[in-house]
Amino acid sequence: ILNVEQSPQSLHVQEGDSTNFTCSFPSSNFYALHWYRWETAKSPEALFVMTLNGDEKKKGRISATLNTKEGYSYLYIKGSQPEDSATYLCAFSGSARQLTFGSGTQLTVLP
Amino acid sequence: DAGVIQSPRHEVTEMGQEVTLRCKPISGHDYLFWYRQTMMRGLELLIYFNNNVPIDDSGMPEDRFSAKMPNASFSTLKIQPSEPRDSAVYFCASTLDTSGSTDTQYFGPGTRLTVL
Q1: Arithmetic mean of pLDDT, B78-106
Q2: Which is nearest to A48 in space by CA: A60, A39, A40?
Q3: How far is A3 from chain B (nearest CA, A)?
Q4: Which chain A positions have a beta carbon within 8 Å of B56's beta carbon?
Q5: Would you say residue A2 has pLDDT above 80?
Q6: Cβ contacts (< 8 Å) between A96 and chain B: which residues?
Q7: Out of A71, B5, B100, B110, which residue is the most buried by the measure of CB atoms under 10 Å away?
Q8: Which residues pair with B35 in a beta bridge?
Q9: Are the beta carbons of B43 and A94 separated by less than 8 Å?
Q10: Is residue B4's pLDDT more than 90?
């Protein structure tokens, strides 16, 4: 059973604050690490796919880094806005096709 | 593209009844996945297909669950008989095999199932 863990489980920040959260995953048989954004009553939406150790991806105010040797990825949000409120999921992809998801970090940005 | 389509969006049924959930993947995608999301277990993979063939069904909880993909544009997940503990949101996702295990999966809107 693959262990993909995310922390914190939930997070409240003020509008304008920057924040980050963590995904840890197995460092063996690594193919890719995916980040998804999941708004309430909607479906998960892909943010990033990262494959190489040291990868950094950026999309607007959201960025992510990857360390495959130690098995972790960070997601950063700069200048959080209320519309960033969502659950952020990471998913590990090994040699098989399926994704193993973490339990997510639920972010609430207070106006 | 319309994205992954699931129906129904909401289903309320009584214990013991048969439930059928439907999914239409994105046209041209050759992988289709069924997930279940619950508070206790998060998002867990039930089964996935490649070119309409089931590849891994180890996540299917028990014999009451079955899934089929008769063609490239349609899949069903059936629960018979349904039980209250099956209440969850069921997601379908699809992807196109372009770069191996890095492929992004595209999710449908989900079916919220409530078994009374």
Answers
A1: 88
A2: A60
A3: 12
A4: 96-98
A5: no
A6: 56, 101
A7: B110
A8: B45, B91
A9: no
A10: yes
